[in-house]
Amino acid sequence: MPRTALIVIDMLNTYAHEDAEALVPSVREALHGVTALLKHARAGDSPVIYVNDNFGEWRSHHGEILRAALDGHHGDLVEPVAPDENSLFVVKARHSIFYETPLAYLLGQLRTERVVLCGQVTEQCVMYSALDAHIRHFDVVVAADAVAHIDADLAEAALRMMRCNMSADICATDDVTFDARRAERPRPVNASGTGAAAPER
User: Fold this and answer.
1) Are 118 and 146 in contact (CB under 8 A)?
2) What is the pLDDT of residue 195?
């Protein structure tokens, strides 16, 4: 099957923004799905990549971002999904995980052909990231029970758009598969792109 990466979007959140009150209940619902995906990806040989907003602090590195989120208003939503020592980390400043970030290069280094997206917000960062992944010829999977929304109607529309316009596989967490564990993970090599493959969960 295609080499798969799990991408966790903006789950290290301080919940200090104006939409937090509307977002938090949906994050609580999605938390089980996100933790299940992390468990399954880590149990195999799939890279786990956190792509997270930098809160406008350009000096921030992932340790500072994680600490700010854990010390924020809802640290209980952050702790279960915190990166482990093998996780990779990319900082973003805008909605898409690809916009002005090294993510595409990193995925090429990992020989990734298929990305599984989870996190927040369905109708914003997840949707824009799915589009950017699609136009870069990655197979896109979105675990519908592992993404959180602010507006339920917009989120439902966004999932339909991802399915219809971006060829995304919208499915349940339990239906997502990851790479089988290998005896030794191959060393990253220089790669400039990815190949398209038939959609596979």
Assistant:
1) yes
2) 40
d(CA 100, CA 113) in angstroms, rounded, equals 20
The alpha carbons of the chain give a radius of gyration, in whole angstroms, of: 16
Q: How far apart are CA 130 and CA 122, in angstroms?
A: 10
Q: How far apart are CA 174 and CA 37, in angstroms?
A: 9
Nearest CA among 133, 139, 121, 111 for reference residue 201: 139
Q: Taking phi first (over 0 means left), then psi (-120 to 50 degrees means alpha), and beta for anything else, what does residue 45 get?
A: alpha
Q: Residue for token digits 């994050």?
A: 27
- Give the Cα separation of 117 and 129 in Å (integer): 8
Q: Which of 201, 177, 169 is nearest to 40 (CA)?
A: 177
Q: Which amino acid is at 190?
A: N
- CB-CB neighbours of 126 under 10 Å: 30
Q: What is the pLDDT of residues 174-187, one digit of tens each?
A: 999 997 654 344 44
* Cβ atoms 176, 37 nearer than 8 A: yes
Phi, psi of 10 (to 5 degrees): 55, 30
Strand, helix or coil at 4? strand
Cα–Cα distance, 103 to 108 (Å, whole number): 9
Question: Is-above-0.85 flag for pTM?
Answer: yes
Match 């990193």 to its residue by tokens: 106
